[in-house]
Design goal:
The longest helix has about 40 residues. The model has no long low-confidence stretch (mean pLDDT about 80). The chain is mostly helical. Helix 6 packs antiparallel against helix 13, helix 11 packs parallel to helix 16 and helix 16 runs antiparallel to helix 17. It is about 80% helix and about 0% strand.
């Protein structure tokens, strides 16, 4: 494809990517209101996010494998339709359970949009030139991430719209993307007889789901050291073992195990797992910090996260262009790991009364680091994959990133609930008397509190508890970023290929 043809097709891809990211970020600042209106608590808050990440994570390897076998254009259009249908029904949800179930459907579509965008980009453009265009994907991710919370906040705060429009507003964008892709995307496709590895897809989905259910409920419904933990972890390990056995025997495995024999693909996948924890924890829990620790509106919560998104936007765009110009990519990964680790560690020191410019600087560091790592980890893996495995390799890295995000959001959400409860109890014990007893009755059911309905002393206790609790989340996520940094150090830099159908580059 020529550059003008690529840019026209890329418009449809970017619209699809924008739609996918928007579905995750537009509800971020609306979640306290959504969960409160539907009568849910911290567990429901976490699962509204985790359900989408779970479905996206579990389906991504299957989308990637299908992309190696069938028309990529048809597949991404199907994923857009699935997303649009899920979005319409999500806006009609009447309970936390219904919303969580429909978010799973949304996640299936988002998994196709995120995974297939990378695959189609790789099919159109050589690795050497791909950095330039990957920067557009990174920039779109940044724009969707920053505009999503802002749009969601405005919609939630607008009385004649309401939070349900947070789900419906993405449907027209998906429709436009569908039309643009139909008119502009032209990719060659060779049909061949295949068998879809449904058993492998089902086993990996079941194993991931069981792990996520465990980390969400442990410490709340049952103790971490309990028979439930043993059963769920043991079950997940058993399902994982069966998955490996099935993949070794499958004629067309959903995740070809031979990919892990290539060190670059294996290391970038594991690094993506840990960077996913940092990336998703930053986007999910900041809304609770600004709304519940600093009493900001949903709209302002989006505005206040701009430093992080601006950093991501700048670093992903600049690094992509410079990689295309120089052909060097490893030092961007290492530098990004350093910045993410530093940013997450510094965010762990914030409190509800920390000056905003401190928080803004910490967010900017984190965003700069994520922008340098996110797309470039995929680029490094794609450069080492054979043409027949391009879709599987691309989706593998994205799968581990989403898996890390899903595990991180579930585990950190459970940790946040426990830390907030502990800090609230400490604050109430200092209040003493009948006021503390009444406060415990008002906050003891785990529901998301309404700060405007609380008296001054109790409101200060809740704000302090959420400020300190969210900071603890970042302190836990910082070592994950450090592990990702250490892994990137061992990734061997190779020359970027200049064609889309050549063999992997030599060292």
């Amino acid at each position: 494809m020529t550059h003008p043809e690529i840019m026209r097709a890329l418009t449809g891809l970017l619209l699809g990517m924008f739609t996918a990211i928007l579905s995750s970020t537009i509800v971020t600042n609306a979640l306290p209101r959504i969960v409160g209106d539907l009568g849910g608590g911290q567990s429901a808050y976490t699962w509204v996010v985790t359900a989408t990440l779970l479905a996206m994570t579990a389906s991504m390897p299957l989308w990637g494998k299908l992309a190696d076998l069938y028309s990529k254009k048809t597949l991404i259009q199907i994923s857009l339709i699935i997303y649009a249908v899920g979005s319409v029904v999500a806006g009609l949800a009447q309970s936390p359970g219904m919303l969580i179930a429909v978010r799973v459907v949304q996640g299936l579509g988002v998994g196709g949009l995120v995974g297939l965008s990378q695959v189609i980009l790789a099919a159109m453009i050589s690795p050497r030139e791909r950095g330039r265009y990957s920067g557009y994907l990174g920039a779109t991710f940044a724009v969707a991430t920053v505009s999503g919370p802002l749009i969601g906040g405005v919609i939630t705060d607008t009385s004649w719209l309401g939070w349900r429009w947070c789900f419906w507003i993405g449907v027209p964008v998906a429709a436009v993307a569908l039309v643009v892709l139909q008119r502009t995307l032209r990719l060659p496709h060779t049909r061949r007889e295949v068998r879809i590895d449904w058993a492998g897809a089902g086993l990996i989905s079941a194993a991931v789901s069981l792990l996520l259910i465990w980390v969400t409920l442990a410490g709340d419904r049952y103790a971490w050291a309990s028979w439930q933990t043993a059963a769920m972890v043991g079950g997940a390990l058993a399902l994982g073992g069966l998955f490996l056995l099935v993949e070794r025997r499958a004629s067309d495995p959903v995740i070809p195990l031979r990919l892990f024999r290539e060190p670059t693909i294996a290391l970038t996948s594991v690094a993506s797992l840990f960077i996913g924890v940092a990336m998703f924890s930053g986007t999910v829990f900041f809304s609770q910090f600004f709304q519940l620790a600093r009493a900001e509106s949903a709209t302002m919560s989006g505005v206040l996260t701009i430093p992080m998104i601006a950093g991501l936007f700048v670093s992903s765009t600049v690094s992509g262009r410079l990689i295309t110009r120089t052909g060097r990519w490893k030092y961007w990964l290492v530098a990004g790991g350093v910045l993410v680790t530093a940013g997450m560690g510094l965010l762990g020191t914030m409190r509800h009364d920390t000056p905003y410019w401190h928080i803004a600087a910490f967010m900017a560091l984190t965003g700069l680091g994520i922008g340098m790592m996110m797309q470039n980890l995929v680029l490094a893996a794609q450069n080492r994959a054979a043409p027949r495995d391009l879709g599987a390799a691309s989706s593998l890295v994205a799968f581990f990133r989403s898996f890390g995000g899903a595990i991180g959001v579930a585990a950190l959400g459970a940790l946040l609930a426990g830390r907030v409860a502990a800090y609230t109890d400490d604050g109430l014990s200092r209040l003493g008397g009948a006021e503390a007893q009444a406060a415990r009755g008002a906050t003891g059911d785990g529901a998301i509190p309404d700060l405007n309905a609380l008296p001054g002393p109790l409101r200060e206790v809740i704000e302090s508890a959420y400020g300190h609790g969210v900071a603890d989340i970042f302190l836990v996520a910082a070592p994950c970023a450090l592990i990702a940094l250490l892994i990137t150090v061992f990734i061997k830099e190779t020359t970027l290929r200049t064609t889309t159908d050549g063999e992997p580059a030599k060292s």
